[in-house]
């Protein structure tokens, strides 16, 4: 699938993602600091925020915008409930509204790329809104999910935790010619495979002088994703397993039908979870309430372990969110969901063909062989 397909799949969503009943509005911030690639900064600040609020940076997909992600994701509504601030970065003016995750500049700490501009938005929020520097989170969908992995690699010191909806490993979408915002078919189509230690080197090389911890990260991916093929989840897991010292083929826990029916959550250690959404295409719908747990706004997340009272006031009870108003399925881009497994003839090259919980085809079209990558994922190779 090409970038055109990626754009087309979001068109409907752009015009239907209305979030009603918010306490405040989206505001653009100009002059937030050094902005080497001219990215936009948009902020949602609820009328009631905590003293020293937490911040969630929520990054849009290709073809999207800050405004579209604001209306089409649950974070503004969750901000009203929990009293945090949301920053919606908007991609620089280019022919497509994708994020640059391919150039050396963006794949380098303070390298002058898109990632650098987003990091500076956070610095602005900390100094201007007195945000709590120890509770800054990042999340994104598709191109924004790729950028989330890149930001965890290039600015690990900023983030308390991250969640990634249908992305690729940081440094997978690299351009061999150094091009900005380049499409990388071999990564997209699941042909890039590296070991955990190779991926860990890729991450370390983006910020070689850094010796501190990396943020806990949740990686969501659909098994029917034909834009960023499902094996990208495995590469993401290998990458961060390499960083955290986990065994990417031996999750410590596997939870069926978690957090939704047909989703399988594999826990590799306190800092890494992979959530494989069976039969879901590009992209996995945002699980807002799960993010609230993972980020520590609600008790019950397996990781990370921040205190449940984020911010120094406790006027907003952590038990207040009525589940009826914070839907986890509010018009997020769930565009190509399918539950139909490949039919006769077997699965296509690069497709999934087995693993615990898999109900689709278990053979591959010739000449490919169903190869077991781990207990949860076999692929036609
Ligand atoms: C795509 O990314 C891989 C690394 O993931 C790299 O080896 C390859 O050269 C890239 N392709 C292009 C055309 O730049
Ligand atoms: C990782 O887990 C696999 C599967 O359980 C096992 O075969 C392998 O030896 C483990 N690797 C390490 C380095 O412990």
Automatic annotation (TrEMBL):
InterPro entries according to UniProt: AB_hydrolase_fold, CBD, Esterase_phb, Plant_Biomass_Hydrol_Est
EC number in record: 3.1.1.-
Name the UniProt record assigns to this protein: Carboxylic ester hydrolase
PROSITE patterns membership: CBM1_1, CBM1_2
Pfam families assigned to the protein according to its UniProt record, in alphabetical order: CBM_1, Esterase_PHB
Signal peptide residue numbers: 1-21
Keyword annotations of the record: Carbohydrate metabolism, Glycoprotein, Hydrolase, Polysaccharide degradation, Secreted, Serine esterase, Signal
Record lineage: Eukaryota, Fungi, Dikarya, Basidiomycota, Agaricomycotina
UniProt region (Disordered), positions on chain: 309-347
First-listed, main subcellular location of the protein, grouped into a coarse class: secreted
Family per record: Belongs to the carbohydrate esterase 1 (CE1) family.
